[in-house]
Structure formats: structure tokens, C-alpha cells
Amino acid sequence: MATAVVARPVARPQARARDEEVLVWPDLVFVEFIAALLFTITLFILSVVINAPLLDQANADVTPNPSKAPWYLLNLQELLLHMNAAMAGIIVPTVWLIILGAFPYFDRDTDGQGAWFGTEGAVRLTVVSGIVGFVGTWALILWDSGKVAFFLNDWFGLSGGDTMRFLENVRSMQSQLPWPEWASKITYLPFNLKLLDGTGSGGPTTFQHLDFPGWLVEQGIPTALLVGLPSLMIYTLWRMGWVVNRRDALLALFSGFVASYGVLTLCGTAFRGQGQELVFPWELKVSEGIPGQEAGH
Amino acid sequence: MAAEPTAPRGGRIERARQIESRKLARRSFLRVSAFAGLSLFVGSMTAGFLGFFNRLKPVGFGGVVTVAASRVPAPGAEPVRISEAKAWVVNLSGPEGDVLGVGGTGGIMALYWKCPHLGCSVPWNPGFNGAAVNFPGVVGWFRCPCHGSTYSRAGIRVFGPAPRPMDTMAITVNGDGSISVNTGAITSGGTDNPLRAVSYNG
Ligand code: FES
Q1: Could you tell me if the CB of B163 is within 6 A of ligand 1?
Q2: Is the per-residue pLDDT at A296 higher than 50?
Q3: Contact: A289, B126; criterion CB under 8 Å
Q4: What pLDDT was estimated at residue B147?
Q5: What are the φ and ψ backbone dihedral angles of A97, each rounded to 5 degrees?
Q6: Residue A208 has pLDDT above 80, yes or no
Q7: Of A97, A241, B5, B190, which has fewest CB within 10 angstroms of its CB?
């Protein structure tokens, strides 16, 4: 590692000049105080304006439709519509948090640290990857909810017929392709695993066979897209010469993430109606789910 | 300290003894309450454990639920919600609900209303048009309120994140046209769901 030290001599931090410093009191604390006041007032006004009643005691017989998590979790609920539950709920958030935590270890450069848009192409990178994240996430949501095929058919009379039907959303690749019988039970454990077996309630009973079409639509394709599309974007930006160092790459990745996170939250909050159907916010109605009074009754 | 008033000699001893006896009382109180708490804890754990050995037949959900003939839907009619069985009873007319074409010939079936995805109660949506999930012309689907998994009348999953079709419950048709739904005998849903329907002419 001696070469590394020679290659990049560490600069001694310069002593800061006195007039660059600000004082905790009053400079910082005063700003914090104002912020606290503003938040208190905003929350007060919100609590007057928005009605948030405590509902009845939970009743397993009554399920509101749509049933939604608190708004800050609706991004994950939106992900749950598109992939395996363990992936959307646990694996993707965990892996992403680890990646976020690893950012500073990946970008070790101390130049321009703490400066907004510190690199040359930073602003356009942020804007472009933000747009890519925004548009791309919406496009994927529209595709997986079957809306793309629906609109192509409804507006332009375009239809791929039965042969193209497997492209209508991710799930239809499982149900609309002529998978051979064996593909949905590929044995991969050489021994007979009897763990919790024979209960007939799913779960571990299917553990030793791989349902390939199911795996493909629930795990395979989502993983490929989650890893592949951001990588593709960064690779393209690199070939275009916009991304020149690691910080640029992370900037693009993070801006894309923020945009798609926002889209997921927004979509889950305002665009998901009964049965998690994609609707416009003004069409969104919640049915209390009281038996006999559900949708259409 | 020097200014502290001095009580008569006998009174001080008496007071000290009283204090001492109070201390003992407090100590035994603590001991009794500690052991009482402990035995309460152990007792409730034991009672909970013994509860597992309750061999009484469950009634309602978990046991056999009888659905009177008047509640059983006619062939092709809307599915009927049977709360006590946590199930939808469907009467399929012909190949209805067999959207993937496995050769269903109709009959009656009980679908466990718990979504095989993450367990929300799945409602019947009579007005939902299958065009939105690429089955144009088929109106009326089960559609989960939580993540939108969509199931045909026979519980066949055609859309959404659920890993399999809706689970089914064993059904027997009784002589008087009522049906018995065995809510303890739940079978994982499969593409063969429509073939599990039991013929019914009540
Ligand atoms: S619980 Fe029904 S779709 Fe997720």
C-alpha cells in the first residue's frame, strides 16, 4: 500500500480562519428554534384541517378496500405489487440501505467534499438521472399493471393476439407461456425434505422443487431489472462521457433512486384505488369493506 | 446535630423496636409478593401450555360449517360470503371461472377468503372487467384490496403478486341441499382449482 501513499499525498487540513466559523449560539440554535416553530405551526394547522379519526376496533370480517399502509410505507407496498413479498418487503430495502451505507467507502475522494454538485457534470447528471428514474418507474408500473397493453388495444386497436399475451405484464409470462409440465417443479434438493411437510397449506411443502416460471416472474425478472436498469443507466452515462468518476456514478444512482422512490410513494398513495387498481387521484374511493356494501353493490 | 432533640430513653428503644418490626413486615411483604407474582406467571404459562391439549372439536372456523340450502348460490350467480367459514361459496356454471382452460365443468366450491399472498381478506368485485387483466369479457373477479392479486370465480390467479391461486376448502353436499364446508381441511390453491368443484343440484 506504500504506492498508494506516494501516489496521493494526504493534504494537511489547513487551520480555519476565524471569520469562517459560526457560533452555535446564536447562529445555529436560532435557526433550529425557527424551524421548530414552523413545524409546530404547520402540524397544528394540518391537524385542524385534516380529519384523522380513530376508527372502530379492528374486525377481521371488515377489510377496507383498498387497504393501505401508512403513507411513508406505500413505496414498499407499491413494490409488493410487482415482486415476491420477501424481496419487496425485506431484501430490497435491506440491500439498498447497505449500499447507501457503503457510498462513502466507494467514493474515497476528498476533493470537493460536502459541496453540492461538486463535480463538473453534476447538475445535468442529477437532472437527467432524476428524469430517467421518474419516467422509468412510471413506465414499469404501467407495464406491470397491464395498462400499456390495455391502452395500446383501447386507443390504437393494437393487439398482439394470444401469442404476444405473455408480454402484457410480468405475471402473464407465467400464465400465458406454454411452459412444459416439469418446468414448474424442478427438483433441486437431492434428498426428500420433510420439514413441516404434508400440511397442505403451501410454504415449505413446495420448498424442494423450484417453480421456474414462478421464480422468473417473482424474483428473476424483478432482480434483473432492479440491478440491470440502474447499471445500464450509469454505463450509458459513462459512455457518453458524463460520468467520469465514482462520485458522478453515485450521484446518478442516488438521484435516480430518489426519483423512483418518490414515484413509488406517490403512486401507492394517490394512484391506487380499489383492488390496487391504477386510477387517477380524483377517482380514488375507499370502500369500508362492510360485508354486502363492497364495490359495485 | 448537637441540637437534635433527645427523646426519653425508653421511648427511643420502643421506637427502634417498632421500626425494626416494620422492616421485617416489609421484607416478608416483598417476599410474598415476589413469590405470588412468580407463581402467577408460571401458572399462566402452564395454563397457556395446557391449552394446546384442548381436544374439543372446534366450532365455527376450524371445524365443519354447515351452509343452509337457501344461502347456496344458484349456478352462475354471484359468490356468497360465508363469514363463519371465512370462505366464499361459488357455484360455477359450466367452465365458468376456468380462465386458463384446465377443463372445469362447473359445480360448487368453497374458496378460503384469505389471500395466499400476505393474508388480506379477498372481496368479490362483481363489476370488475377482466379486460384490465387481459381477460376481456369476463366480468366479476376476486380482487385483493392489499396488492391487487386478481382471481377468477374459481380462484385462479391471473394477476398480481400472489404465489398461487386461492386456497380451497373441502365440501360435502348434504341430502337437504345444504353443504358442509370443512374449514379445517384447506388445500393450497392450484391451477386445478376448477376441477375441485363438487357437483350440486340442490
Ligand atoms: S395480500 Fe392479497 S395481494 Fe397481497
Answers
A1: no
A2: no
A3: no
A4: 92
A5: -65, -40
A6: no
A7: B5
> What's the angle, vertex CA A93, arms to CA A88 and CA A99, rounded to 5?
135
Whether B173 maps to a domain, the answer reads yes
Question: Domain segments of chain A: what residues?
Answer: 71-108+117-165+221-283
Q: What is the pLDDT of residue B79?
A: 93
Which residue of B100, B145, B157 is in closest CB contact with A275? B145
| Burial of B156 from C-beta contacts in 10 A (0-12 / 13-18 / 19+) | buried
pLDDT of residue A204: 46
Instruction: Take residue B95 and report the three cell numbers written for it.
Output: 367452465
Q: Are B68 and B178 in contact (CB under 8 A)?
A: yes
- The DSSP output letter for B41 is H
Q: Cα–Cα distances in Å, from B91 out to A183, B77, B98, B112? A: 32, 7, 12, 14
What are A121-179's pLDDT values in tens digits?
899 999 999 999 999 999 999 999 888 888 888 888 777 777 777 888 888 888 888 88
Q: Is the pLDDT of residue A12 over 70?
A: no
Domain interval for residue B190: 64-196
- Name A159's Cβ contacts closer than 8 Å, sequence gap at least 6: A149, A152, A153
Q: B166 with B75, same domain?
A: yes
pLDDT digits (tens, 9 = 90+) for B125-152: 888 888 777 788 889 999 999 999 999 9
Ligand 1 and B111: CB distance under 6 A:
no
Domain count, chain B: 2
Q: Are A79 and A96 in contact (CB under 8 A)?
A: no
Residues B23 and B41 in one domain: yes
- Flag whether the ipTM exceeds 0.90: no
Paired strand residues for A272: A278
**Do B145 and A64 count as a contact with CB atoms less than 8 A apart?**
yes
Helical H runs in A191-245?
212-215, 221-239
Nearest CA to ligand 1 atom 1: B118
Q: How far apart are CA A168 and CA A146, in angstroms?
A: 5
Q: Per-residue pLDDT tens for A25-41?
A: 888 999 999 999 999 99
Question: Is residue B202 in a domain?
Answer: no
Residue B1 forms part of a structural domain: no
Portion of chain A with pLDDT greater than 70, in percent: 85
